[in-house]
Amino acid sequence: MKGTSVGSLAIIPARAGSRRLPGKNKRNFAGKPLVQWTIEAALDSSEFSCIVVSSDDLDVLSLVEKFPSVLFLERDPRLSSDSATSVDVMLDVIDRVGAKFQTVTLLQPTSPLRDSDCIRNAFSFYRSCGFKQVVSARDLKENVNHLAVVTDGKLNRIASDKLFMTEGSSLVALNGAIYISEFDYFRAMKSLFTESTTAFLMEALISIDIDYEDDWQKAESVALALGKAK
C-alpha cells in the first residue's frame, strides 16, 4: 500500500500552440473552456494538495485566476514547442514549485470527459495495485487477429505473435487522461512508462482524447448526452 494521497501534485499542461486545433485549451467545450473541465475535475476530486496549470497562454492565466487555489506557471518558450514532451513540462513544474510530494499526476485538458470520480477511482487503484505508476487506458475489444496495418496503400495483417500476447495478457489503448506516479520515482526515472507502470482501465465512452476536430465533435456530443454540458 502507498498511503494516502495527501501531498499530491497535479500538473495540467495547456500550451497556446496546437497544430491541429489552435487555441483549443480556451475554446468553448460544452459550455466552458476546455481546460476548465480538467481544472474543476482536479479540484472536485479532493486528491491534490497542489494543482498547477503550466501554459504560455495569458488567456489561460485569466481563466486560472477564477480558481484561487490553483497555481499558474508561465511556461518557458522552449517548453512550448512541438518538440517539448509532457515529461519535460512536468520536471520543469516540479523544479519551480520546489516542494516534495508523495505523487505527481499529469492531467491533460484534451480528456474533458474524465471527471472527479474517475480521478478518485484511479488513485484508489494506484494505492492498491503494487506499481509505482498508473496510466489510464481503455480495453481494446477487438480480436488481435483482426488488427492490420496499411502501408502505402497495402494492407498487412499483424500476426498475433508479433504482439507478444501471452496468457493473461490484454490489449489496451492509452487514452491520455490520467498519469499517476510516485513522486521520487518519477524524478529519478524521468519517464511515465517504466517496468513499474500498469494500466487503469476507463470506459471507452469517456476515453475520448481530443486531437482532431472530429474528436472534439464526438466528445462534445457525449458530454451533452451525459448531461455534463454547462
UniProtKB/TrEMBL annotation:
One of its GO terms (molecular function) is N-acylneuraminate cytidylyltransferase activity. Its EC number is 2.7.7.43. It is an enzyme of class 2 (transferase). Keywords: Nucleotidyltransferase, Transferase. The keyword Iron-sulfur does not apply. InterPro entries: CMP-NeuNAc_synthase (IPR050793), Cytidylyl_trans (IPR003329), Nucleotide-diphossugar_trans (IPR029044). This is Probable acylneuraminate cytidylyltransferase. It comes from Bdellovibrio bacteriovorus (strain ATCC 15356 / DSM 50701 / NCIMB 9529 / HD100). The lineage of its organism: Bacteria, Pseudomonadati, Bdellovibrionota, Bdellovibrionia, Bdellovibrionales. The gene is neuA.
